[in-house]
Amino acid sequence: MIVLGLLLIVLAGAAAIAVSWDETAASTATASFTVFDRTVQFTQLEFFFAGVATGAVLLLGIALLFAGMRRSAAHRRQLRATRTEARDRVAQLEEEKRELERKLESAPATPAPAPAPAPAVDRNRNGVDDRDEPTGPHPRVDVPRQSNDQLVAGRHQRTVDSR
Fold this sequence. Notes:
The chain crosses the membrane at residues 47-67. This is Lipopolysaccharide assembly protein A domain-containing protein. Keywords: Membrane, Transmembrane, Transmembrane helix. The chain has a domain at 2-76. The protein has 3 helices and 2 strands; from the N terminus they run ααββα. It has helices spanning 2-21, 24-27, 44-106; strands at residues 30-35, 38-43. Strands 1-2 form a two-stranded antiparallel sheet.
C-alpha cells in the first residue's frame, strides 16, 4: 500500500510540474500537452477537471500511504507486544527455576526408598521360588529320522528312491 501511494503521489506531482512548465497553458483558450509522443489538447474547463483529477489522485496516494503506515505500525506494535510477552514468560520461568534450585539446595537429603522385593515366581506351584531351584540341563530327546522327511525351505538332496 505504501508503494502504491508513493507511486500515485509521484504521478500527480509529475503532472503538476508538467503543467507548470508550460507557460501557454494558462494564457490561451486551449492547452496542448505531449505525453508519450501523443499530443493532447484541453479547453480551460477540461484543464480544470484534469487538475481536479490530479488532486484526487494525489489525495488517494496520500490516503494509501497513511493507511499503509498505520497498518505497518500496528503490525510492529503487535510484534513488540508479543516479544515483550515472551520475554516476560522466560523471565518468570527463570525465576521459578532459581526458586526451585534454592529449595533443592536448602532441603535435607533424603535417602532413596528401598526397592520393592521382586515377586516370587513359582510356576510349578511346589512352594519354592523357581529362581532359587537348582535346575540342570534338560534331557535331549532324539527322534529317529524317517525316510520320507522333506525340507520346506532350503536345499534338497535327491536320494536314489525319490527320483
